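Tutorial handout. Part one gives the primary structure; part two gives the three-dimensional structure as tokens.
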Amino acid sequence: MKIAILGTGKFGRALAIRLVEAGDEVVIGSRDEERAREVATEVGARGERNEAAAATGDLIVLAVPAGVAVPTAQALGPVLAAPVLSVVAEIEFTASTARPPVMPKSIAERISETVAVPVAAGLHTLAALRLAKSRPEEDAFVCGDDPEAKALALELAQRVVSGRALDAGPLQSARALEAMTAVLLNLNRDYKTHTGLRVTGLP
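Part two.
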């Protein structure tokens, strides 16, 4: 699979490491082409400006900071050449406690309203630190309304975890997946660890 990862932060870098290891062709995108090439060199990928990266690949992973996710997707809309997987979660911090913002729609849903390509959401329960080290023994969750976009996202998810890639339903489920990031951050803080999720009761 040819995958473009837009974003050079911890999660985008960790995801690139796992996908390169899996044998995928990975392009790292950034507003700063030099930064993209720097990170790409570190992980064995190719670096481009966001516009060039977004115009290629079988799946475009949006891994930019939450505050710029929707405007970034909107600006890149005309050049997006494949379905988008949003791994972005918006988190508010109050007295060192993480919580999801009170919003009527998830970031992924808002992105889907600004671009013409299908949008899926997922991987929100995976910690960048653990992902960078190895394929975590966790399940990964993906949701979306478009069958092709969801299938591509599930295929990607299965490459980066040693658990299962699970279909979490329609894109509206992104509201729960994005909010779960805050739950795990609070657990990490309280128990001084890096948590993940496994679902029981599935065949």
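Part three, for discussion. The CA atoms of residues 111 and 172 lie 12 Å apart. The radius of gyration is 16 Å.
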